[in-house]
Amino acid sequence: MTAPNVRHWARTVRWYLRELTGEAEYDRYCERHRRGHAGVPVPTRREYDVLRTRRREERPEGRCC
Amino acid sequence: MPTSAMPESGRTEPEKPRMSPKSLAIWITVALVGAIGWAVLALSRGEEISAVWLVVAALGSYAIAYRFYSRFIARRVLQVDDTRATPAERLEDGVDYHPTDKRVLFGHHFAAIAGAGPLVGPVLAAQMGYLPGTIWIIAGVIFAGAVQDMIVLFLSMRRDGKSLGQMARDEIGKVGGAAALIGVFAIMIILLAVLAMVVVNALAESAWGTFSVTMTIPIALFMGFYLRYLRPGRVVETSFIGVALLLLAILGGGCIQDSSLAEYFVWSPETLVFCLVGYGFVASVLPVWMLLAPRDYLSTFMKVGTIALMAVGVVIAAPNLRAESVTEFAHTGAGPVFAGSLFPFLFITIACGALSGFHALVSSGTTPKLIRKESQVRLIGYGSMLTESFVAVMALIAACVLEPGLFYAMNSPAALLGPTVDTAAEAVKNLGFTITPEQLTAAAKAVEEETLVGRSGGAPTLAVGMSEIFAGVFGGAGMKAFWYHFAIMFEALFILTTVDAGTRVGRFMLQDMLGNVWKPIGRVTWKPGIWITSALVVGAWGYFLYAGVTDPLGGIKQLFPLFGIANQLLAAVALAVTTTVLIKSGKLRWAWVTGIPLAWDVAVTFTAGWQKIFSDNPAIGFFALRDKYAAAIDKGELLPGATTMDDMHTIVLNNTVDGVIMAIFLLLVLTVLVNCAVVCVRAVRSPSPLPTTEAPYVESRIDDLPERSDDDLVGARR
User: Fold this and answer.
1) Coarse DSSP helix, strand, coil percentages of chain B, rounded to the nearest 5 percent
2) Does B526 touch chain A (CB under 8 A)?
3) Quick check: B408 and B424 in contact, CB under 8 A?
4) Is it the case that residue B7 has pLDDT exceeding 70?
5) At a CB cut-off of 8 Å and minimum separation 6, what does B477 contact?
6) Does the pLDDT of residue B718 top 50, yes or no?
7) Which of B55, B290, B414, B655 has the fewest CB atoms nearer than 10 Å to its CB?
8) Residue B543: which of B530, B531, B555 has the closest Cα?
9) Averaged pLDDT for residues A1-22
């Protein structure tokens, strides 16, 4: 495998894991926020995470057997 | 007219792909390879065959089913329409609704549906040989399980992500809806109890296992605090740290086992029950970021990693199947692991992996709100379920590579096996298999357990099978103990995650139901309400768990059929709702797609339920067994399995409760079925189509090709 190839794979794996775990949600949120409310400061990662877990608190997701 | 939330985009009509000669050739080859796998399985008699043939038959069948049957369902039956905006697009809010990449959503959905279920059922079903189990897992998933998952997902997606219960209420009526709701709740309680029992049986009297599983709690707490305060939102990084700590905990368990600390981690089954119940309550009450969320990340990583490892292990090690293809227990129904004949009991023992009603709840929850394009229900609904089925096939392989004597020594009830390796070897001999006491001791020593005799529940058997396979590929015989405890740990991790999440979901359901009667308890922010409902849910499954663990006749043998029937009854509800909706939307001609699996599933579950209630055979019927023991109590006799008169009373009580619960399940599901039938007849007779709750058509503005180019990967910032 060549170096660019490895880098490509590493990037893909990283992208997949970030998407799967929801880590990438914050980036998306910021982008959306900038589009919707330009001028209002974007919440920090910490603030966003508090919001995110609170949502999760109210909407439990079932896990199957 | 409402419009899509997405910016407008130019659309070109997609060309209809035709099958080229090349792909035709490829598919003929796939079909042939699969057919060869099946031929080897079917024709070999008396000689050991390689597990690879099982894998080949499974993968070949899945590929054909996915390519042709799921496509037929998508195009003809559901008429998926990629020009129609999905709820993820129409209602996009970046939170609940968001068009998600199909590969990511596949992973999400798979992680939500797959757990310990497909690992446990096939192991127990190995009692009837590998062939019946394999046929049911593969045929069941293709024609029933994956169909159910995909169609429920589709219908929920067309209704903005409504839950199965809501769909039942909207499309069938109040009575059916209410019965479905109560049924779902009751079934979940049994499911949690049986899964928790698997953990108890796996950890009881094992210092290594107990230590490493206990350590998952501080590890999850650490991850929770790390994610919240040190590195907010860095989930991937935190998960890797968590997995590393988890592996250390497994290694640490080995050291604990050999040290003087071991005695502190050897817990009796009863102690473990109280720990689990306490844990379930705390996990349900604590904020999710502390315990539940990090545990879920850990469990997802372990799940994907271990399943991949297992697939590689099976293919490289290519172990031989030691079990017979069809054992005599398939005909006689007198097997020690679970009682009853092949029909219907094999089909309820293997639920997850072939057909699992619980998936209908997941498929009508979060996933439908995240689908980008309608046609992707094929990959996400059908494809995820095929993958879970493959996990079940691997579990079956792991159980069948064991020496049959060892299998029965591990999975028969303690009452049959007696207290020592000598009595166990004798009992196995009476069943028609051979294993010496020395072999039993050696097998336990290889995985560094006190004993393997009577370690029912499926998890220890799977772990021994996996350690056998893994040790052949990675690390040799010296690593067997590590792999055994690795397998125990990851199963316990899955189950505890399900118990956490399930208790929480159950609590919300209960709050919702009780809220109709008494308002304050329905408020999700009222602390005492949360505590009361959590305690009720935990208490409910805790009761069955305790009863199962202390059951003198072996709780798994008593409760596992109840669990299997419950799960399959839920599937009957889901399939009945989908069939009704198909008929209501004028697709009577395609109703067989869910109608046939429904008919089969109803035949299986109601036959099994009927036998469990009315059979005269005490080995099968709950009430027959109850009467037998009650009669003995009147005479003042002790029957096998009971050592005291208290045991006798416990047996009578447990069987009464189990029988009544069984009857309640059947009645609830019967209510739903009758209600569905009425609606179907009305729909067929009605000159104009009955109203459905499908969301109206909105044109999509997402161009699907290319799905996502590498340049605008969301994660890859530069």
Assistant:
1) 70, 0, 25
2) no
3) no
4) no
5) B446, B471
6) no
7) B414
8) B555
9) 90
Where do the domains of chain B lie?
21-205+267-506+538-685
Where is mean pLDDT largest: B176-190, B191-205, B665-679? B665-679
Q: Does A10 touch chain B (CB under 8 A)?
A: no
Q: Indicate the SS3 state at residue B429.
A: helix
Residues of B within 8 A of A20 (CB-CB) are: 104, 107-108, 111, 300
Q: Which chain A positions have a beta carbon within 8 Å of B289's beta carbon?
A: 49, 53, 56
Please tell me which of the candidates B111, B232, B508 has its beta carbon nearest to residue A60.
Answer: B508
In which residue are the tokens 């709701």 written? Answer: B181
CA-wise closest residue to B566 among B673, B663, B432, B440:
B663
d(CA B514, CA B512): 6
Supply the Cα-derived Rg of chain B in whole angstroms.
Answer: 25
Whether residue A64 and residue B714 make contact (CB cut-off 8 A), yes or no, is: no
Flag whether pLDDT at B11 surpasses 60. no
Q: Distances in Å between the alpha carbon of B325 and those of B55, B138, B353, B539, B554?
A: 15, 16, 19, 42, 26
Residue B15: what pLDDT? 54
Q: What is the pLDDT of residues B562-620, one digit of tens each?
A: 999 999 999 999 999 999 999 999 999 999 999 999 999 999 999 999 999 999 999 99
By Cβ distance, the residue of B101, B114, B358 closest to A19 is: B101
pTM of the model: 0.93
pLDDT over 90 (residue B707): no
Chain A hits for B98, CB-CB cut-off 8 Å, are: 28
- Note whether B232 contacts A46, CB cutoff 8 Å: yes
Residues B251, B307: contact at Cβ < 8 Å?
Answer: no
Q: What is the pLDDT of residue B517?
A: 87
In chain B, count H helices and then E strands: 31, 0
Length of chain A measured in residues: 65
- Read off the tokens for B106: 């596949």
CB contact under 8 A, A65 and B116: yes
Task: Inspect the interface and report whether the beta carbons of B289 and A53 lie closer than 8 Å.
Answer: yes
Work out the burial of residue B453: count CB atoms within 10 Å of its CB; fewer than 13 is exposed, 13-18 middle, 19 or more buried: buried
Inform me whether the C-beta atom of residue A7 falls under 8 Å from chain B C-beta atoms.
no
Instruction: Provide the 3-class DSSP secondary structure of residue B50.
Output: strand
pLDDT above 90 covers what percent of chain B?
Answer: 79
The ipTM of this complex is 0.93
Helix B207-225 / helix B292-317 crossing angle, nearest 10 deg: 130
C-alpha closest to that of B182 among B564, B704, B586, B566: B566
The verdict on B204 touching A (C-beta cutoff 8 Å) is no
Angle between the N-to-C axes of helices B164-171 and B555-584, in degrees from 0 to 180, rounded to the nearest 10: 50
Contact A65 B96 (CB under 8 A): no
CB contact under 8 A, B234 and A23: yes
Task: Say how far apart CA B348 and CA B605 lie, in whole Å.
Answer: 7
